[in-house]
Amino acid sequence: MPSIRPARSIQAPDAVVMVRPHTFTPNPQTAADNRFQRAGDGYAPSAVAAAAHAEVTAAAATLESHGVRVHLFDDTGERNTPDSVFPNNWFSTHAGGHIALYPMYSPNRRRERRQDVIEMLRTQYRVQDVIDYSGLEPDGLFLEGTGAMVLDHVERVAYTARSNRANPVALERFATHFNYEPMVFDAADADGQAIYHTNVLMCVATEFALVGFDSLTNTARCAEIRARLADSGRELVELSQAQIGEFAGNAIELTGANGRLLAMSARAEACLSPAQKQLIQRHASILPLSVPTIELAGGSVRCMLAGIHLSRR
User: Fold this and answer.
1) Per-residue pLDDT tens for 97-130?
2) What separation in angstroms does the CA of 75 have from each of 83, 113, 169?
3) Extended strands (E) in 118-188
4) Above 70 in pLDDT, residue 7?
5) Which residues are the signal sequence here (predicted)?
6) Residue 76 burial (CB < 10 Å; 0-12/13-18/19+)?
7) CATH code of the domain containing 117
8) Does a structural domain hold residue 295?
9) Residue 136 falls within a domain, yes or no?
10) Given a cut of 80, is residue 139 above it in pLDDT?
């Protein structure tokens, strides 16, 4: 009998874009406001680059073995794009055939935008239009994609932590074009420093959400977000500041060959409690990916995967 593919969830794409770096290194232009970023721990740059290349290769193979379609692009380093491994920041895709291109905070990240990725999407998926917000960069208006925003595609909410990478004018333009309600909040780490990207503290899946509520600094706004997620019917997995620091919030729900998967780093999975894992596994299988070198750059598995919410041709 032919296999029956699980029903697609608008929240959990079954295909992703990944970029495999050949000259990976933590980005000096993003170090000032990305407190998750670390130096290369004394290893030779060539060893760090080789480890990152191997981690992306292995992660892509693991995702494909679980039935996720992976479009893997290589960055050979000619354009000096140290954060190219995180493509979710410069573009996103949306049901109905829409693509958004985003204005990036760091000048060297602006070079990550690739026409070959967009052409692949146009060739293999149904694309109606590409809305390009990168023209906002000269005015200092930045919005770093699904790093700056965590999108609830079902309820049409764009959860957004205030930061240098999430300008309110750019956010309002996106929300108007794509019909999302912005829910903006302040978030800080255990030392009181603003958290640079929303997707390190929040993951919204189809039937659950991982949220670092302790990171939200306004009690009333925190209660509103908690209620909004609960009213959507999702179970809430509350993450501590320590778990946020281990990238437990930087996860993404995908649809694999045998059902929904929660892709996250091995480091993130290891810090979850048994009760948290049990709640998640009622709705999705946890798929840990080992990416310790990539995490030196201040991002993890969610940042590495640009979900494709488009219909195939």
Assistant:
1) 999 999 999 999 999 999 999 999 999 999 999 9
2) 10, 11, 31
3) 129-132, 149-152, 157-161, 181-185
4) no
5) none
6) exposed
7) 3.75.10.10
8) yes
9) yes
10) yes
pLDDT reported for residue 41:
59
- The answer to whether 284 touches 229, Cβ cutoff 8 Å, is no
Structural domain contains residue 221: yes
Cβ-contact 298, 25 below 8 angstroms: no
99, 110, 311 from 250: Cα distances, Å: 22, 22, 25
- Tell me the DSSP string of 225-256: HHHHHHHTT-EEEEPPHHHHHTTTT--EEEEE
Q: Which residue range forms the structural domain that includes residue 70? A: 15-307
Integer Cα distance of 51 and 53 in angstroms:
5
Burial, 192: exposed, middle or buried (Cβ in 10 Å; 0-12, 13-18, 19+)?
exposed
Is 10 domain-assigned? no
* Residue 276 zone, left/alpha/beta (φ > 0; ψ -120 to 50; rest): alpha
| Amino acid at residue number 112 | E
* Mean pLDDT on 239-265: 97
Q: What does pLDDT average to over the chain?
A: 93
